[in-house]
Amino acid sequence: MTLPALEIHQVYKSFGRVQALQGIDLTVQQGEFFALLGPNGAGKSTLINILAGLALADSGKLAILGHDVRADYRQARRSIGVVPQELVYDAFFTVREMLRFQSGYFGIRNNKAWIDELLEHLALTDKADAYVRHLSGGMKRRVLVAQALVHKPPVIVLDEPTAGVDVELRQSLWAFIQHLNRQGHTIVLTTHYLEEAEALCHRVAMLKQGQVVTLDTTANLLNRHTAIQLRLKLAPSCLPAALKELSCGQDGELFKLSLRRHADLEGVLATLRESGIEVEDLEMVKPDLEDVFLELVK
Amino acid sequence: MTGLLTLFYKELLRFWKVSLQTVLSPLVTTLLYLLIFSHVLEAHIQVYPGINYSSFLIPGLVMMAMLQNAFSNSSSSLIQSKMNGSIVFMLLAPLAYWEFFAAYVAASVVRGAVVGLGVGLAGLWFAPLSLAHPLWMLAFAVLGCGMLGAAGIISSIWAENYDQMAAVQNFIIVPLTFLSGVFYSIHSLPPFWQAVSRVNPFFYLIDGFRYGFFGVSDVSPRLALEIVAACFLALSLATLLLLKSGFKLRK
């Protein structure tokens, strides 16, 4: 049987009187592209820090590819690469030096070929001998990604990797991460750009106040949680009483109705016809992960 | 061992890249002490028979420079990593707590030795220097730098900011080094201050190190070595326990 990439069982963590994590249970299978979403303070970074060994859980079990993060920390850390949220760097060293050191910390002596490949994929080749402190924010972020990947970890955790990164770079970064995912690397992502999670991730866990409030495939979440929004411009500009129960707001002359299914559109149009109201403009808006997110964290 | 060696090399490269500040500056400061004190006191003081004051002063200044720089090396590197967050790169890696300890302490010993060697060689221009017991000299040098390297790790783990770190350096390390018999023999002090000096471990480091050069000392070199070795082991154990627990490093 294949070991899960991540196994998190009943993890609790508090900081003083604040309960950051309250019994988190989560399993991520190998090869998944998994999103960990939630509002600020939900516990995403705390959970990642505990997985990475940057913080210690009060109780519970965490394993990376079967390696306990405390008892078997060396193997656990070799199995995971973490891109931290903060833009951190060592002011004394160049990009290449940082990558060589990081390789060495993971026990890898001659890593030049892979470092060169990483630099190329992340468009950093011409900055290899520049001091990290002299790079732009986006480039520093890419150096962090390279450092996390320097030991070719089977599990890659990206904590807000595209914060403050321009669109072009964000796209090239995702193309590279998707390439790694296709090669079999498990990807766990936290992001505030929900469209990224929607486009990339197979499964999503949403955290709120240190608990998993939902865990499902991205497609199921989108189907299950949020209605389709129908936006109508009518002449005359009034909504028949029979449709009032579907109303979910009005924006100027635009009426917004909430439909469970696409097929419900037929009934709405029939009611409008019977009421002698003409449709001047019509738009169907599909739900996105942001709607699900907002609904769940309400 | 690759992890340990890499961290050790990184620490060496870190201080070498700013060697004006980490090597040349303490060397010049220490030589200024030597220049001033030897010129002012040379004609007035003879601590040990047959040894002029400048020669007496050199081993003490060498050891003082070594101790202060060994402490600075581990403490400044770690507090900077903590403050700017780059310590995560080491914490994310599969480095054992004892590898972390060994790399930082070894780098402190090297920095202390480089500065000490510089001061010693430059000191020869001021006064002649014999080397009666080189192995004793070496043992005190390595143990002293190791002790201060470990103390630097403990202080930087404890300190929450640069101010607290500077307080440890200025209010503990500097007074202990200055009041350890660098510039005098404790026999020239009143009985009370002699007793106080005997509870300062730095006194045994200076005295034992000086024995390595001249073959004479204020206390038995064997006793000094035992006390210094015990202090080194106690500080190392405390550092290892702190690192193992993750205190203030892993939240």
Counting helices, strands and paired strands, the structural category of chain B is: mainly alpha
Envelope shape of chain B: globular
| Number of discrete domains of chain B | 1
- Per DSSP E runs of 2 or more residues, the count of β-strands of chain A stands at 14
Sum up the overall morphology of chain A in one term: elongated
Tally of separate helices of chain B:
10
CATH topology of the largest domain in chain A: Rossmann fold
**Largest interface, with Cβ-Cβ < 8 Å?**
A-B, 34 and 28 residues
Could you please describe the fold and organization of this structure?
- Chain A has 298 residues and is of the alpha/beta class.
- Helices cover 34% and strands 30% of the residues of chain A.
- Chain B has helices spanning 2-17, 19-41, 53-84, 88-91, 97-123, 134-158, 162-178, 191-198, 201-214, 221-245.
- Chain B has one domain (2-245).
- Chain B is globular.
- The A-B interface holds A 15, 49, 52-56, 73-75, 77-78, 82, 84, 86, 88-93, 97-98, 100-109, 147 and B 2-3, 5-7, 9-10, 13-14, 17-18, 80-81, 84-86, 88-96, 246, 250-251.
Quick take:
By secondary structure, chain A is of the alpha/beta class. In chain A, 34% of the residues lie in helices and 30% in strands. Chain A has helices spanning 44-52, 73-78, 95-105, 112-121, 137-149, 167-182, 194-200, 218-225, 264-274, 289-297, and strands at 6-15, 18-28, 33-37, 59-64, 67-68, 80-83, 155-159, 186-190, 203-208, 211-217, 228-235, 247-251, 254-259, 278-285.
Characteristic terms for this protein:
heterodimer, A: 298 residues, Rossmann fold, six-stranded mixed β-sheet, four-stranded antiparallel β-sheet, elongated, B: 251 residues, mainly alpha, 0% strand
Task: Give the SSE layout.
The complex is a heterodimer of chains A (298) and B (251).
Chain A: E1 6-15, E2 18-28, E3 33-37, H1 44-52, E4 59-64, E5 67-68, H2 73-78, E6 80-83, H3 95-105, H4 112-121, H5 137-149, E7 155-159, H6 167-182, E8 186-190, H7 194-200, E9 203-208, E10 211-217, H8 218-225, E11 228-235, E12 247-251, E13 254-259, H9 264-274, E14 278-285, H10 289-297
Chain B: H1 2-17, H2 19-41, H3 53-84, H4 88-91, H5 97-123, H6 134-158, H7 162-178, H8 191-198, H9 201-214, H10 221-245
